[in-house]
Specification:
The complex is a heterotrimer of chains A (362), B (319) and C (283). Helix content of chain A is 23%, strand content 35%. By secondary structure, chain A is α+β, with helices and mostly antiparallel strands. Chain A folds into two domains: 5-230, P-loop containing nucleotide triphosphate hydrolases (Rossmann fold), CATH 3.40.50; 243-359, RNA polymerase II/Efflux pump adaptor protein, barrel-sandwich hybrid domain (OB fold (Dihydrolipoamide Acetyltransferase, E2P), Beta Barrel), CATH 2.40.50. In chain A, helix 2 (99-109) crosses helix 3 (114-127). The longest helix of chain A has 18 residues, at 173-190. Chain C is an all-alpha fold. Chain C is flat and about 100 Å long. The chains are: A alpha+beta (362), B mainly alpha (319), C mainly alpha (283).
Amino acid sequence: MARQIAVEAKGATKIFGSGEDAVHALDNVSVAIRENEFFTLLGPSGCGKTTLLRLIAGFELPTAGDILLGGESVVHLPPYRRPVNTVFQSYALFPHMTVAQNIAFGLEMRGISRADTAARVEEMLALVRLGRLGGRKPSQLSGGQQQRVALARALANHPKVLLLDEPLSALDLKLRKEMQIELKRIQLDTGITFIFVTHDQEEALTMSDRIAVMSQGKILQIGTPTEIYEHPTSRFVADFIGETNLIDVGIGAKANGQVALRLPGGREIAVALPQGIAPGDKGTVAIRPERTSLTRDADRQLAGKIENIVYFGTDTSYFLTLADGKPFHVRVQNREGARMTYGKGEEVGVRFATDAAQLLRD
Amino acid sequence: MASIDAAAAPATSETLARTREQIRRRDALKRTGLLTPALLIIVVFGIFPLFIVLFYSFLEAGAYGGVEWKFSIDAYVTFLFNRDLFDPSILHFSPSYLQIFARSFIVAGIATVICLLVGFPAAYFMATRPAKTRNLWLFLVTLPFWTNLLVRSFAMMLIIRDQGLINGFLMWIGAIQQPIVMLYTPFAVALGLLYAFLPFMVLPLYASLEKIDFRLVEAGFDLYATRGQVLRRIIIPLSRPGIIAGCILVFIPGLGAYITPALLGGGRDLMIGNLIAQQFGGSRNWPFGSAMALILMAVVLVFLMIYASVTGRQKVGHG
Amino acid sequence: MAELAPPPPFIASRRQRRMLDLTYQPGFRGVAYFCLFMLYAPIVVLVIYSFNANPSVTIWTEFGTNWYVKVAANQYIQNAAITSLKIAVVATIGATIAATAAALATTRTLPYRGLGTAYVIINLPLMVPEIVTAVATLSFFAMGRTLLGIDLGLANLMLAHMVFCIPFAYLPIRARLEDMDRTLEQAAADLYASPWHAFRRITLPLLTPGIVAGAMLAFITSIDDVTITTLVAGPGQTTLPIYIFGQIRRGITPETNAASTIMLAVSVLLVSLFFFLAQRRKK
């Protein structure tokens, strides 16, 4: 499956301002995005994901490092000479042009013939399902429709790479979910490499082939949604994606790629030692709440007291305090309906499979 | 998948530096080109002439107007002194020109104060109207500002002259027998300035008052303040920038006014503007006129600097 | 166990409404209306009496447009109007182009060396008292005439007007530029438009309302100018304001009323247009 690399950043760094007020938006970021991939840059505000996108598009010049498209460096090229197109967060539709004129704009700029342009515009309008709205002005469209025009306008140029800067953030929930499905369908149909920026981890998990989690100008982890969710390598990633329990463990002997961990309360388990982690004698382990269950048996890894029970319809959350005083969240699916087998204040045990425990880098 | 190619690094940093330089140079060139027409016109035909005035003020007056190319500080001397008729080397202090300056200050000052007293309540009222009405008020107040000053001064003349509207009305109802002399007095000039510059006062005041967060006023009422106290202690201090801007915008043009005093002042009781214009007309003393113009300019600059230091350099451009 | 009727709806009296209004200050409404009255009364009087058939400027007899007929037939006024127009058109075109270029160079950029100075120079004509500018311009052209023998004729006035028209045209253009969405030009670049194309197809069309507004302000300012024009104009360079100024100083006649009303009408028309355009922009 040796796919070509469509976009690559090598040591990309961007510093705004200078001296004391300097902002390190991107700090030595390197990533390679493959062709036909739906790649997501995920992170909170200010993590540098939009900056990286802008470096790829050409709106900013990196302070250091290189940006390559199809293996060739493009840092010296202005945006209008790069074969990438962008869908902006605010859509940036040209208010004085009609929808059709907006979509045709890139083609006109490249000198494509009138006839071909018209045909392509029709094709795009059909693709984003805006067939009869070609003659309207952007101000006459709803938010969702404007978003689709922005998408069509970018796709009309058949770019190799499409950059999307939080395009769904202005839409309401229902529309957002619809558009997520649309976007994924379009990406699969056209095969264009999508680089998608978002702060919504659910969006990232549902749509992406691979995700890069970013924080404070650095990429913390790159992987498939499953890898990121099941095997986070850092506290930030574990915490940012979904909900996690973080427990302090003591680290014991290592052998055969496994390491012994001493849990709070005394129990010992052996987990796989993740790549690239060289632990000291203490560490942190992340466990997803839905991978745990409560038990009254002696066969348990942790013990604690139930402080609070919250009923969520599909599942019930139990909030415990462990032996060492730290909080712990157990989420149990209500497979047999809303039956509260355990009560508030009860001392119970917590069970989880060994591979659910993820030793973190920090 | 995340190793930096060490060999590539130096090459790209060169490219980056080169690209950065290219962009910088291109931007600077574009900017200079764009700024040249405007700056050229203003510097050559607006700023450079001011230096010529400076130059002229140190020359001698020509016999038929214009200047003689001889250095002399007569112009400045004449401002404060008269040469003795019999012995030109003796100087008598002559306050007449200072009087004209003083009169201009007083007249402009009075006009400014009344403008403020009348304009503040009006601006406040405007700023507290609902949005649509506010726009209408803005339009109505701005409109006279753009009409010809000549026309407005003329209209004022029609009203206050001896056969004008006010006198006509008062005599018609029998309140007076003889017309009240209003035209061609300093009162007329002050009234004319007030009338001409009222929009200049109302608009900055309005801009300032509109920005006031009325929750502060609400807080004031909540703390047992009366309306008068809220006005004095909260609203007026908050609108200080507008008050200062308005006063400056009325006082400075008022000081150097020419049309309004010319029409409403009638040629006696000169103000600075008329004095200066006269030197370039009938009195044929260009150097003296130049000197007066420079002194006026200097006074204006002083006030502008006070204004700038009080409000901070907020107007000088930012991106 | 009688049923209580629902209480009558509470309708506040004017006085009660006033008490509840946070912003109410006693007497301010009256002053505001008085201001309006003061601003418009003289003008209204002027306009009304220009239609007075009677030559007296105070006694009204009957409606008549004879003065307007006289004004229209007056050769001097016609020439003066044409001169005013010539100057205003040239000054407006020059000032608007210069101001547009200057606005593009001084707005939406990171601060650069000389930006502050440029901004001060562009706004300088607004800060110098008119009489000083008039005198300076007069001296400048006089010196040109005596020292270098150059006399540009009407171009003197056109250039002088351009100087103070530039800041008037600059302000609305700059305001419009600042309001414009910066990402639009980025989107254009993203869609393969070179800077020149992006300017021509995106920036310029969107800037046009501002440019038109600026041109109108410049035009009005040029047409209405009295002080500078009076001092700088040579023989045969009579503009409409100069003519009217002279007439007024000579004595008040109803013709002057009519001519003034015409000037007034032109200003009002242009300003109303400007406001109308500005309201449309806000949409």
